[in-house]
# Entry
Amino acid sequence: MDTNLALVLLLAPFIGFLINIFFGKTLGKNVAGIIGTLSVVVSFAITILFFLQINQNGQPISLFLFDWIQISNFKVDFGFLLDQLSLLWLLFVTGIGSLIHLYSISYMHEDVNMHKFFAYLNLFVFFMITLVMGSNLLVMFIGWEGVGLCSYLLIGFWYKNQDYNDAAKKAFIMNRIGDLGLLIGIFILGNLFATLDYTTLKTAISTATNLDLYWISIAALCLFIGACGKSAQIPLYTWLPDAMAGPTPVSALIHAATMVTAGIFMITRLNFIFDLTPFIQNIIAIIGAITALVAATIGLVQNDIKKVLAYSTVSQLGLMFLALGLGAYEVAVFHVITHAFFKACLFLGSGSVIHALHGEQDMRKMGGLKKVMPITFMTMLVSSLAIAGIFPFAGFWSKDEILMVAFEHNIALWIIGSIASIMTAFYMFRLMYLTFYKEFRGTAEQKHHLHESPSLITIPLIVLGVLATIGGLINLPGNNWLQHYLSPLFSKAEHEAHAFGIIEYTLMGIATIGAILGIVIAYIKYIKQNSIPSEDSQITGFSKVLYHKYYVDEAYNAIFVNPINVLSRFFRDHLETSLSNLVFGLGAITNALGFQGKKLQNGSIGFYLFAFVLGLTAIVSYLFLAQ
Amino acid sequence: MNSILSQVGIDNYIFLAVILFCIGVFGVLYRRNAIIVFMSIEIMLNAVNLLFVAFSTYHQDAQGQVFVFFSMAVAAAEVAVGLAILVSVFRNLGSIDVANLKNLKG
# Structure
């Protein structure tokens, strides 16, 4: 029974994909949208069933489908594992996925390829479920690659624009770099323990007497590189902002709420390995903190509404990695969930704004939308408060816990995290003020068409807005439901619940004051002084550096892309030419020989017979003489 | 060994076979009538058969004679096919002069 249900949970989106890709065009836009949405809703419903079950009895369900690979003592099953972690992930992947599918029915309605869009989204959900549900690293890897593929397909969904295609390729290639790391990590683990199954691996590590920590560290580092690629950490983060070329629901689902958290999922899943290597954990924490800070500074000056949100996503992911590096896995997971709520809401809200402005994404040409789009405004405001970390919204609780953990371990990391949080508050409210307050700055034509989005768009917004408000309830201090729920996953003894003392309250206070400070600065700058970000050409000084994202893309182009291009061009112009000349030359020689040899075939039977006798005589004389 | 072989001597058989073979070769090379060419080939074949049989007896080994049976059977089949081809050539070209068979020119 469980097996069948789990298979339905896994395959429903895949069936949706098949229907939409083959019959979507004939079924029509609405039907394609409804099939796409329903298939994810089915998965969501089954996930809830399983979740309630495991929440009651705490028993993970493992499913074995068939033997996949078996080479001497190395064995990989094709199986799935439904435990606390995977069900939690499934819950918000399918839940938010359903909402975003619903939203897309309206958002993508103008697009001729809507059925294809839903097919890709369904395929993405299928692969994401595979990634999360797999019982070993190799099944996870299938999902890992699959979501990368869907990400590529969806970033380049509007394939007639070459920039979008380039963005898609960039995302795919950068992910490949990370994937190579992940693969090497998997190989090392497989070599060390002769298994890739999570539970077996965990037992093997906990019972092993002399672990080869050197190789385990290398494996952990490689796995982290994989996580860097997928979850957009320094140095592999530059694909994520470019990935905003895709339609906005894609940005919300894949590049904010679900796929980019795969790296965090993987590290949490393998926490027993990372716990063994404190050095790698330090690297993770430091990279996370630096990413959080760098991305936040870039976010301060971006003018494209989706770019701001993209850098904010990178920054928040950095905070999650900070928590992972400090060994506070459940805190990172908590932030993943709240972040999924409010970031999905923000992206969908920005999509609603872009929809109303017919594709305009530049915040300098927005403004004054508060009155015309009250629902979008309210939900985005709530989510902005949540991401800024204002009490009592969801982001406050999760971000606060990360900062608290950072404070316990290392004051420098806490300072970096706090600065990043203040910046978050600033750029989010810069976005809100520029978009929704003051007068409208676009054309009169656009102003005439301003409207609140239809209910298919606003309903998901409202649901996510509510979740962004109350999402913190799952792990309130003192209650710590999430921590208890996830505790079977972690090898070390459960942290004793924080005794809530003066330090904790002070930290909370500082965090809140910081967030309010950020909001106030934004208020002064964009409401009181009424300033609007200047034109691209007039940006000077350090903000120009920030506006150009520290010239990281340019640097990568100069260091990696251009040399490779030069090398490829060299190979094409010289190596390939000489090689093909060689091959053509051989062909020409054969041809010339054949042309000469053709003359022997003159058609005279007498000549043939003469040649035959001559040859025979030659052979016979040779045989005589050779003796 | 009271047989024809001992009376005549193996060397005479060899001479005869060589002479027959050479006649066949020259016939193939000089004559232009396809049927004569064909007959010359048969002479060559029979020269070899003769040699086979002679050596077979000389060595007291029946293998050579068995082989000749096969060779003759195959030769019979070959004659049937070859004559059929010649008939067909005659129908098409009106003659069986091998000099006229130039269609195989490359």
Q: What stands out?
A: The mean pLDDT of chain B is 87. Chain B touches chain A at residues 25, 28-29, 32, 37, 98-99, 101-106 (CB under 8 Å). The domain at 4-100 of chain B is CATH 1.10.287.3510 (Helix Hairpins).
